[in-house]
Amino acid sequence: MTKTVHLIGIPMDLGQRHRGVDMGPVAIRYAGLAGVLQGLGYQTKDAGNINIPGHYTLSDTRLCERIIPIRTACATVYTMGRDALRNSEIPIFLGGDHSAAIGSIGGITHDGPCGLIWVDAHGDFNTPETSNTGNIHGMSLAILLGDGPGELVDVGRKGAKITPADVILIGVRDLDPKEKIRLKNSGCSVYTMRDVDELGMHRVLREALGKISRRAKIHLSLDMDALDPGEAPGVGTPSPGGLTYREAQLIMETIADSGRLQSVDVMEINPILDHCNRTAQVAVSLLASLFGKTIF
Q: Among residues 96, 126, 139, 144, which is most buried (max CB within 10 A)?
């Protein structure tokens, strides 16, 4: 039976202050994602881009003004993610900034839990009280665990959408001081870039998959700034010392081999800051491996 992949574009840049990530879904499509997936034997269904209310009309970037349109967008994404799984489809959420994960991960856990592998340079574990910027894309994982503005915590259904024991972070290297303390005490499993350097990516992945072995399915939330800026320059918050292309590919290949992939986010591509759409092309290459492309 041919599997169906459902592409859902989320052109949202309200979770942070740098414009441009709203064009990420277009960049990924332009890099040939649908054709690559079809070549791997998948039927592709493209829902287009959701509407982002108030996208270009906000008078300022205050947190209180951005919460309402982010909540509305995430509620739409929540419903689409939930329905895609109910239709036995594999949703790929194309961002947009990482605040969109509030909706995507909420939706794909509506009917049951899954393991979450969060690949990111940042922890996204701030709250409005600890954040230096007030940027919601730096709070999205905390919100999914039930800690943050109530309007966003309760998107789709009330309360936390996932438990710390089901969360693995990989590639972390840039944390705010108070965020560092929160994440250390969170109960989530965190593999920093030092861990990747010392242990090697193969061991990190073996341990990570073991820690969420009780979950039959996995959601991958990939922030492209997890890769080193030399590999993926088109991101809004680059951080040096990130994953190499091969380390990122090994993550994809290992999840593919597990047979447990349920859904995926690809977030934070900013074509304005990119070079000849290179970051979107890297994203498509990684997704190809995630969906079964092999060397042999």
A: 96
CB 101 within 8 A of CB 113: no
Buried b / exposed e over 5-44, threshold 16 CB at 10 Å, is bbbbbbbbbbbbebebbbbbbbbbbebbbbebbeebebee
Closest CA to 282 of 220, 234, 219, 215: 234
The predicted pLDDT at position 134 comes to: 79
Token code pair at residue 230: 């030399």
Which residue ranges form the domains of the chain, and what is each CATH number?
4-290 (3.40.800.10)
**Measured distance CA(127)–CA(58) in Å, rounded:** 22
Cβ contact 232:279 at 8 Å: yes
Give the pLDDT of residue 256.
98
Residues of the chain with pLDDT under 50: none
